[in-house]
């Protein structure tokens, strides 16, 4: 961690018409890391991302990309950044190639050979000279990534990158992002409202709600804390009584019991139940839903 | 910067709007050519005399007769008087202000389209220059490049300037080329009078001098270009301020048409002369027509337009570089 | 091809920008530099000398509202009906030029005659018809109310003086054309003071005819008798100008004279 962070966000705030939308967001991305930005719609993910990419000016706080301040050294900072904010909206009346050429011309440091590289990278070689209006959503998404990678950025920002993609497309995208981080030492900031997506893609996650970051941690740590075990057993009241001697128990909706996941103790709990004549029918772990995680992290505060 | 402007020109061309504009002009010019041709023909038939002097004399007599009527409005009387002295001047100096020919048609066409038609065409091109990027979402990609915002807007402004020049050029070329089929292509050297100044209801001829028609046309096109640039700049500003291209067009259309109406009825509302839309008819000053409001002159109108243009330019650039994009 | 379009359009646009900027600059220089002086056109576009059109009879009409045709429902006036009549009688093409102005006085006409175009048309004319003097005398009907003989005599002298100059000027410009000066009628001949007004108009006509007689080929055409009886049937609603019937009467009278003249010339 001695090197310069790829992206540094420090105490970022935004006030719109007297209303505090973003309340002091801070986080840091190290090179080669995929960082998830998790929160429900309306939590402030997109506003934060737009401040990072320079579309919205923050009320206070600093953003540094590759050590360059977005406010004072806009051009230098942007040179290290590639992004797709929300949908990859490209010029539909131009061909894919013309779109890329258009954006490449805006940065003198991009050599022409780079265009061929990114087109091959995202696998659009066959259709690149067709108009974008004829592209499918997946192809537009790929073209969007191609344009984001044009300037060989240090930081790639993707806002809801799997929105509207089919399952195969989502998996492809996920692998592609991990590959980029691994092979090009790229830091990727991914925002999403889907936990499963973040979980599979990211090294670390920031949970954001109502304009503030609630937790920043590795995915493993966050989830491990919240992982649960679902029990199906007969008779239910006895099972509940026995388990509650060991840990906290809540009753599930369809005749199940829910306890925390505690790997070393789980076999003992099970043995105890069996010993006392409870028939354990099912025992499975469950990852918490985003809602659960939120309820947990925010202490009962609802998402909206 | 050249690359940025090139980008903007590419988008402009690919949107095909320039072609549409050219098509519109190519469609309208034959229409007006035919109308003009009919008018000339009818005049010849009516008078049975091909001498333009007789026609002009007849017009003068008609004007004089109208002036002698007591029911005539004061404003109209003033206008007629100015026209009269001008016609007389042409006659005395043996200059036919309407000798048929493609250059003459060009001149008449451009004089008649400076206050509405050309601004409308310019508006169609400029209206979506910025607003389409905002409504299409591409502005997000455009503004996250390592290029400062004002440079991006300036490149768009320059593209606007180039396309305005292109439109004006198309008008010149098409009106010359098409009308020449009917009227012939000669007449560039015909002498024309300019430099009339209006003071009160008198036409001052102190500065009147003769210029060949080609110079006269070049001067008028210069003014047309100026007017188009101002209209373009204001449309550009609206395009920055509003996301919806339709709203930009609506506002511009309303103010341009309001200007055309106002110019005919504001004679007694003096401060209306500070509106940009009543000042669009710059070529009238060159040809010495009466002004809609007392106290307007070429210098005045150009300054009013310049003030509006500069204000629009500043507003556009300040808003664009400060604005948050959602 | 697509690539070239962009380059060509850009280059053309840049060139056009420069051209229009130059035009604009020239306008500013041209319109705002006060030192410019009117230079006379070096070459006249066309010689402005008279060119008579062969085979057509050109009638040149000048004067006041009577010649203009005020009061005629068709707006033709006696000149129009005269032309119609002559067209019926002869096979010649007739070209009518009417430069009459409503409310024209003898002084105004004299001034109009100084205009080069009027002079040029005078030269081209085969026949000249005119009405003048009505406004000198009546001033739209207002002057006769007072019946101040002194004032009327003063006006008459000025008028006769002007008419002499008009005659001379016309003759100077065109030696051959016969000039028909259509005389005055009394629009008030059914009014209380009819005897007085009629005598004034008669005297006015007499003096005019006397003046006309001093020139060659100037015919003073009387109309007093046409309107003497039943004047109300021949007047327009303003009780001053003739109506269509009145104009037809005048046209008929002038037409008969012109025919006569033409035949005389032939023989």
TrEMBL record, chain A:
In the UniProt record, the signal sequence range is: none
Q: Which Gene3D superfamilies does the protein's record reference?
A: P-loop containing nucleotide triphosphate hydrolases
Please report a single Pfam family linked to this protein.
ABC_tran
Its keywords, alphabetically, are: ATP-binding, Nucleotide-binding, Transport
The ABC transporter domain sits at: 7-235
For this protein's source organism, the top of the classification is: Bacteria, Bacillati, Bacillota, Bacilli, Bacillales
Query: What family is it from?
Result: Belongs to the ABC transporter superfamily.
InterPro entries found in the cross-reference section: AAA+_ATPase (IPR003593), ABC_transporter-like_ATP-bd (IPR003439), ABC_transporter-like_CS (IPR017871), P-loop_NTPase (IPR027417)
Q: Supply one GO molecular-function term.
A: ATP hydrolysis activity
Q: Per its record, how is this protein called by name?
A: ABC transporter ATP-binding protein
List the source organism. Answer: Fictibacillus phosphorivorans
UniProtKB/TrEMBL annotation, chain B:
Pfam families cross-referenced by the UniProt entry: ABC2_membrane_2
The keyword DNA-binding belongs to this UniProt entry's keyword annotation: no
One GO cellular component term, please give it. plasma membrane
Q: Which GO terms describe its molecular function?
A: ABC-type transporter activity
Instruction: List all membrane-crossing ranges.
Output: 18-37, 116-136, 157-185, 223-242, 249-269, 298-320
Keywords from the named record = Membrane, Transmembrane, Transmembrane helix
Taxonomically, the superkingdom here is Bacteria
Annotated protein name in UniProt: ABC transporter permease
UniProtKB/TrEMBL annotation, chain C:
Q: Where are the transmembrane segments?
A: 6-28
Q: Name one GO molecular function term.
A: phosphatidylcholine lysophospholipase activity
Pfam families this protein is in?
Lipase_GDSL_2
What is the protein named?
A: GDSL family lipase
UniProt KW keywords: Membrane, Transmembrane, Transmembrane helix
Segments forming domain SGNH hydrolase-type esterase: 61-249
What domain of life is recorded for the organism?
Bacteria
